[in-house]
């Protein structure tokens, strides 16, 4: 990646928390002129000029990156609206619902700017500008064109705002659900005195994971739903005996029970 790949690009970064500061600093290193703004005046990023307001940060920027929080996404767009106009690209990188992204797009596009709904798919602090992403919306192709050469892997998934956010949140059901299941099982293993053994089992399973494992989990759960419901109810009871709240175990039993009922209905 050329050190001055971002030369002559003016970028406003709204939000200088962990993710925003990392991406802003990388853009500055790549030669972009970066102006940042954050409601917390103590936040900053290396080689990034600080503005006194969102509007001031956006005023002379070609590209605006909103990287704060889903709860603040709409307000950030509203505070930037007076400085947005035709030719500018406003990218919302916050994790938020489809409806939030649609609301932000409406504000941005009413000003004549293009909108990109960007979903970041990995922790930003370790990767910065190299964080893989999905993009959708009227400005998705432009976002990919501008940020791909800077090192960000961007997959365009549609022209509708919210399409990228929707995919990320669906993926989060798996990723965060997996984390919860691992956490609960390790807590139980710790209480039972076999945490090291279980950790090795989990690592071995994840290291060998492929498409066949996914298929076995999906089809096996449907085929053996009744037996697996009983198994998870027994697991939940064990966790209670060990003093561990079986939230994931009990939810799994409920999900499997639902599969069993669905299977029974299709047979009658």
State the end-to-end distance: 61 Å
Strand content: 5-15%
Report the strand count: 8
Count of helix runs: 10
Radius of gyration: 23 Å
The string of secondary-structure elements, in order, is EHEEHEHEHEEHEHHHHH
The CATH C-level class name of the largest domain: Alpha Beta
Largest sheet data: 8 strands, mixed
Low-pLDDT parts are none
Share of helix, binned: 40-55%
Lateral strand order in the biggest sheet: 3-2-1-4-5-6-7-8
The average pLDDT value, as a whole number, equals: 94
Looking at the overall shape, the CATH architecture of the largest domain is 3-Layer(aba) Sandwich
**What is the molecular shape?**
elongated
Domains, number: 2
Protein structure class? alpha/beta
Determine the CATH topology of the largest domain. Answer: Rossmann fold
CATH superfamily heading of the largest domain:
NAD(P)-binding Rossmann-like Domain
């Amino acid at each position: 990646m050329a050190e001055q790949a971002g030369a002559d690009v003016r970028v406003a970064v709204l939000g200088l928390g962990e993710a925003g500061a990392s991406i802003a600093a990388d853009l500055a290193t790549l030669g972009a002129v970066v102006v940042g703004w954050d409601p917390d005046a103590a936040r900053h990023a290396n080689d990034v000029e600080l503005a006194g307001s969102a509007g001031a940060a956006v005023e002379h920027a070609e590209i605006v990156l909103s990287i704060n929080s889903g709860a603040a996404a709409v307000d950030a767009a509203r505070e930037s609206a007076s400085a947005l106009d035709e030719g500018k690209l406003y990218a919302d990188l916050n994790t938020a619902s489809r409806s939030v992204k649609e609301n932000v797009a409406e504000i941005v596009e009413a000003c004549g700017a293009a909108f990109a709904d960007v979903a970041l798919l990995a922790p930003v602090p370790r990767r910065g500008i190299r964080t893989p992403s999905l993009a959708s919306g009227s400005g998705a192709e432009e976002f990919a064109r501008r940020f791909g050469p800077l090192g960000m892997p961007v997959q365009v998934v549609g022209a509708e705002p919210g399409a990228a956010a929707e995919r990320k949140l669906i993926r989060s059901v798996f990723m965060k659900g997996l984390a919860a299941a691992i956490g609960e099982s390790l807590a139980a293993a710790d209480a039972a005195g076999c945490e090291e053994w279980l950790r090795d089992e989990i690592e071995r399973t994840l290291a060998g994971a492929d498409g066949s494992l996914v298929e076995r989990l999906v089809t096996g759960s449907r085929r053996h739903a009744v037996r697996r419901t009983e198994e998870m109810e027994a697991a939940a009871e064990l966790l209670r005996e060990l003093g561990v709240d079986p939230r994931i175990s009990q939810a799994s039993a409920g999900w499997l029970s639902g599969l069993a009922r669905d299977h029974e209905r299709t047979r009658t």
